[in-house]
Design brief:
The protein is an alpha/beta fold. Helix content is about 35%, strand content about 25%. It has 14 helices and 17 strands. Strands 7, 8, 9, 10, 11, 12, 13, 14, 15, 16 and 17 form an eleven-stranded mixed sheet that branches. The longest helix is centred in the first third of the chain and has 18 residues, at about 105-120. The model has no long low-confidence stretch (mean pLDDT about 95).
Length: about 425
């Protein structure tokens, strides 16, 4: 049987790792796929040839479109990243009848609906396991392993940079800005860390997970996104005092009113396994009605972990080359004509519990006034802590946890609390999730 020929776009961290995995493990891969898989053509403008095996048998070019147009290539592996020219390359590959494997979460989150429609029309596969949580096979787990379940919710630590920063803040009491500089020095964060610390990267991934879990079109523009730059070490300490840890989570949940789609810092009970995922590691917790909660843990980035997922997709595609297109696993888990128009809820319609911190005058009646405003809004307090004022200070930090409430009611209550003469500045608000089964 003729080998499956792969065209590789990009020989950077992930591209080089993919080349190495496919070359070094070629014998084992061919045993699993039933035929040889060989990279025959690759495009890259900058790469370290000394760190990549097997390049002497590959046609190298700086023109990615030449690889996409190569009639000998069966599968295009897109590892350039970004929106453009990745979108144009993938669409041209599909138009040329080639299958596509990509690790590009931004591309799938924003243009996946268009790409999958084009792929269905041409009868080709677009595989994207490496687009979410690096080496963790979460796409396959949700799309195939949990296919018999009604997925109730998904919650994940799906950005290693943010998790590293919050872990360091908790373990060593460091400030956000200080840890961010170290993350950049270690290569965990980019020179411009916006996508990581503001939650955009996690939002791309959550958009994909929500579509797989609930059978809805990809809707990145409706994903609520909040970063971690405003997290203060005192909030980390307060969370610990209450028995919680702060994690930057992507959360999607199906309710009677619609689908929640949100990324934000979240207090979760310290006893949860996912609360103990530290450093740059990723973890995704999925709750199905039949299986209950299941946790998927591992490296969310890096050369070889991500290459592992890319190579697994290439193997899956090679196995499916002779399969009738109508009998393949759907791109987004559900058949294309069965995707639902369930609405995505705005954040002010989401119901959750809250952590509140405010600076209050150290005088009688302040706590009662705050509690009265919350009570009028139908918000009950679960726990409260008033810290001792520093010597010579007239203000104290007032910290509380509330029970679950719709966010717009909490917004109204916070506005009234901030209007009190006895409250200084803004109220810090973080959401709380129990993530129980």
């Amino acid at each position: 049987m003729n080998p499956v020929k792969v065209g590789l776009l990009g020989l950077g961290t992930v591209g080089g790792g993919t080349m190495n995995v496919l070359y070094r493990n070629a014998r084992e891969i061919s045993r699993r796929a039933g035929r040889e898989i060989r990279v025959s053509h690759a495009a890259a403008r900058d790469y370290d040839a000394a760190g990549i095996d097997g390049l002497d048998s590959v046609t190298l070019s700086d023109d990615a479109f030449a690889v996409v147009g190569d009639p000998e290539v069966d599968i295009i592996v897109e590892l350039i990243g970004g929106y453009s020219p990745a979108r144009e390359l993938v669409l041209e590959a599909i138009a040329n009848g080639k299958h596509v494997v990509t690790a590009n979460k931004a591309l799938i989150a924003l243009h996946g609906n268009e790409i999958f429609a084009a792929a269905r029309a041409k009868g080709v596969i677009v595989a994207f396991e490496a687009a979410v949580a690096g080496g963790i096979p979460i796409i396959k787990a949700v799309r195939e392993g949990l296919a018999a379940n009604n997925i109730e919710w998904v919650a994940g630590i799906i950005n290693g940079t943010g998790n590293f920063i919050l872990s360091e803040m908790r373990d060593k009491g460091r400030d956000f800005a200080d840890v961010l500089k170290e993350a950049q020095a270690l290569g965990y964060a980019e020179a411009d860390p916006t996508f990581d610390v503001e939650g955009v990267d996690a939002a791309h991934k959550l958009t994909i997970l929500a579509s797989l879990a609930f059978g809805i079109p990809l809707q990145f523009d409706k994903t609520y996104t909040e970063g971690i730059a405003a997290i203060d070490p005192q909030d980390v300490r307060n969370a610990e005092d209450f028995g919680y840890r702060i994690k930057h989570l992507g959360i999607t949940r199906k309710t009677d009113a619609g689908v929640e789609l949100r990324v934000h810092p979240t207090l979760i009970p310290e006893r949860r396994l996912i609360a103990n995922v530290d450093g740059v590691m990723n973890a995704v917790l999925v709750k199905g009605d039949a299986v209950g909660p299941t946790l998927y843990y591992g490296a969310g980035a890096g050369s070889l972990p991500t290459a592992s997922a890319v190579a697994a997709d290439v193997i899956d595609v090679a196995r499916s080359l002779s399969t009738d297109p109508g009998n393949r696993v759907p791109h987004l888990a559900f058949q294309a004509d069965a995707l639902s128009d369930i609405p995505v809820l705005p954040i002010d319609a989401v119901e959750t519990a809250y952590y509140l911190r405010m600076q209050a005058e150290d005088k009688p009646g302040v706590v009662a006034a705050v509690a009265g405003i919350l009570s009028e809004a139908g918000i009950s307090i679960e726990a409260i802590k008033q810290q001792e004022p520093a010597e010579g200070q007239t203000q104290v930090a007032l910290v509380m946890l509330t029970h679950r409430v719709v966010e717009r009611h909490m917004n109204d209550a916070i506005a009234k609390i901030e209007a009190l003469d006895t409250i200084a500045g803004s109220v810090t608000r973080l959401r709380v999730e129990l993530l129980d089964g």
